[in-house]
C-alpha cells in the first residue's frame, strides 16, 4: 500500500502547492492592478500572509498524518513481533542484555518476561559455547544474517538445537539486533543420528575382512569397503574408484561370467555362489559370494555383493570328506556301532551297523534318543558317567549297559567313547563304538554253569575215592579185604567219567553255538 504521508511526498505536495499558489495569485494580482493599481502592493502582502498560513496548516496536517501512520506501523510491527509463532527477541549489542522478548520465546525457554529482562544472551547458552558466541559477536557486520545452528538451554536445563536469523537495528536509542529462531532439535538429532549411523556402518564394513561392494544397473562400482579396494589393488594392480566400470578389474571372459550374476540380481534374483581361484604363492582360495538386489521405492537400482573367505572351511570339508571315507572303510572292517556326538548341536551320527545289529531303520539324531534306549536300571551307570567324563575334562569312557533294540528287547553292550576338545580346550565331540555283547554274556553264563557243575559234581566222587583209597592196604594189594574197596573205586570212577562226558557235551554245545555266530 502506498504511503501518502511519507516525508518525501509531504515535501512534494508542499512544493506543488507553492508553485500553483504563486502562479495563480500572481496572475490574479496583475489583473486587479490594472484596474486598481494600489491593490497590487497590498495584495502581495496579503498573499504572503495567506500563503504562510495555508502552508502551515497543510504542513501540520501532513506531518500529523505521517506521525499517526508511523504509530500504526509501529504497533503493527510490535504485534507481529509479539505474536510471531517463532521465538524472537531484541538484545543490546553492547552489553548483550535482552531488550524485548516475544511470547513464543517465553513459551519455548520457560522464563518469564521479568527473568529475561535480567538476563543476557549468554545465559541461555551452554558454558562451553560462550567463547564461540563472543568471537561471533566480535565479527559482527551490518545487515541480515543467517547464523547457522547453535545450542541453547531452556530454563529446566534441556538442551536444544536452533537455527538463527538476525539483523541489526536501533531500539529505544540503543544499538540492537533482532533475532528470530527455529527449534530444529528433532531434525538436528535425526541428522546427527544418521551421520553417526553412517560412520558406524562405514566402520563396520571397513573393519571386517569380508569384501563388500555394490554395482549399479550400468555395471559401475557405486560403493565398496577398504578390504575390497585393497584386494583388487593387490591382485589386479588397479586402484579402484567409485564410478569405475566392471571391465576395469576383470578380463573379458570373467566380465561376461560375472555380468550374468549381476543381471540376475538386477532382475530381483538373490544368488549365493562359491568361487574358487588359485592364487600365486597361496594356493587355492575359496569364497562364498552373495548377490542381493538393491531396491529403492520398489525399483531395483543395483546389486549389493558380499564375499566371505571360506578357504579354511573348504579345507576342513575336504579333510572331513577324507575322514568320512576312512570312517566308512573302518566301519566295513568292524561289527561295532560307531557313533559321533557333536556336543555343540547335541546331534549324533550313527553308522550302518546300528541297523544291522539292532534293527533300527531311522532314528532321531538327537542324543536324547540314545538316552531313552538305555535300560532304566543302567541309566546312571551309562548316561551319568559319560556326562561326568565330559564335565571333568577326561578323555576316555567305557561302560557295559543294556540297550533296547528295534523289537523292544534289551541287549547287553560294551560302549567306549573318546572326548575331543577344540582349540579353546572345550569339549567339542565324542567319538565312540558300541559292541553287542549279549551273546558273549550268555556264553560266559553257560561256561559259569559248566564250571559250577564240574566243580561241584566232581568234588563228591573225588572225596569218596580219596576216602576209599585211604582204607586200602597199600602194603599188600592182594589182601582180600581190598577187593570190595577196589570195586567201589571202580564205581566212583565210572561216576566221574559220566560227569566228564556231560561237561564235555555242554562245552561242545557252547562251542557249536559260537561257530554258528
Key terms:
517 residues, alpha+beta, Beta-Lactamase, five-stranded antiparallel β-sheet, 14 helices, 15 strands, 25% strand
Characterize the structure shown:
The protein has 517 residues and is α+β, with helices and mostly antiparallel strands. It folds into 5 domains: 7-80; 86-189, 2-Layer Sandwich (Beta-Lactamase); 208-310, PAS domain (Beta-Lactamase), CATH 3.30.450.20; 334-436, 2-Layer Sandwich (Beta-Lactamase), CATH 3.30.450; 441-516. The chain is built from 14 helices and 15 strands. It has helices spanning 7-35, 39-83, 103-109, 113-117, 130-138, 185-207, 226-236, 252-266, 311-332, 353-358, 367-373, 379-391, 438-471, 482-516; strands spanning 87-92, 98-101, 144-153, 159-171, 174-183, 211-216, 221-224, 271-279, 283-296, 299-309, 337-342, 347-350, 396-404, 410-421, 427-436. Helix 1 runs antiparallel to helix 2 and helix 13 (438-471) runs antiparallel to helix 14. The protein is rod-shaped, with a radius of gyration of 57 Å. The mean pLDDT is 81.
